[in-house]
Amino acid sequence: MQGDRLEERLERLEKLLREALQRLERLEEALAAASPDTVMLASRLAIALAMPAIEALEAARRVVALARGVDDPIARDVLEILSGCEPLTVSEITRRLRRLRGSASRTTVRQKLRLLEEKGLIANLGTKARPLYTLQACIEENQ
Fold first, then answer.
1. CATH match of 34-141 with 1.10.10.10
2. CA 131/CA 129 separation, integer angstroms
3. Does the pTM of the predicted model rise above 0.85?
4. Which of 120, 130, 122, 132 is nearest to 78 (CA)?
5. Of all helices (H) and strands (E), which one includes residue 38?
6. Listed ranges 1-10, 32-41, 48-57, 121-130; the one with the highest mean pLDDT
């Protein structure tokens, strides 16, 4: 009886270790294929926004592709925050921007969101009164 339990636990542990190794291999492959800028940005996103590494790498790819035409550093940071494809309120974007930059005002965030929306880089999935912003690229990926 005791030996059966131990064997079951060992099998579960082996399965978990195999899954962890597979995830690490996928991450290594993704990192090897990414540019140094993408890897640096992914590291920043993973640390500042508590994003899993593989998700941060995908998010960084989105930002690198979109941010080429965006010279404003705050607007670029807003793109980084939205790169996880999670629809966010102005308040949540402001909170996350504070984590990235140390400070941020709602007024500035709203201005940057308006600018990015005019450029077609982000979209409002909510209403005018209660906006929820996400990257346009995220919407296109899911269609």
1. yes
2. 6
3. no
4. 122
5. helix 36-48
6. 121-130
